[in-house]
Predict the 3D structure of the following.
Amino acid sequence: MTGAGSPDGAALIVGLGNPGPEYAGNRHNVGAMVLDVLSARVGGKFKVARKGRAHVVEGRLGPLPGRRVVLAKPLSYMNVSGGPVAALRQFYRVEPAAIVVVHDELDLPFGVVRLKQGGGEGGHNGLRSISQSIGTKDYVRVRVGIGRPPGRQDPADFVLRDFSSTERKELDLLTDLAADATEAIITEGLLAAQNSFHAS
C-alpha cells in the first residue's frame, strides 16, 4: 500500500500546531484541529504520551475492524515538531511511509485539501523539522489550504492569526474534509485517496 504503509501495521497521524490556548485558533494550528475531529471518530481523548512530547490517542479508524492508528499532537512548538515525531515513531515502531502529517498550507486556497508523499517542505518549518529528525522526507502529507496573506502581510504573521470570521463559518467543513481525506489514506491508500479528493 503506497503511502501510509502496510494495512497490518499501525499508522502514526500527526497534526501540527503550536501548544497553548493562545494559539488554538490560529491558521497554523489547523492540523491539530483536524486531529481533534479524528479523535472523536476513534472515540478517544488525548493524553500525554509515555514517550515523546505529545498528546496521543490510540484507536482504530475506518470501517470495522478498522486500521490501528496513533493520533498525535506534538507539545513542542511547530518549528521543532521533529523531536516528538521521531520519538513516537521509534516507540510505536512505525515506518516512515506509515506516517501521515496534517498541516497548514499557504500555497493552497482556503478550503482546498491536497495529499502527497515525500517531496519538499515548501518553506514549512514544521515539516522541515520532521524530515530532519526522522531522516527522510518519504512520509505522507495532508496539505490543508489556508490561502496566502492579503496585501503585503508577512506570511509568518498571517499563519499566527486566527481564521477570519468568514473563514470560521467554513472551518468545520474544512476540518471534516481533511479528516475524511486522512481516513481515506489510512483505509484505502494514498493513490485511491488522491483520486477521490483531488477531483473536488
Summary: The two ends are 23 Å apart (CA to CA).
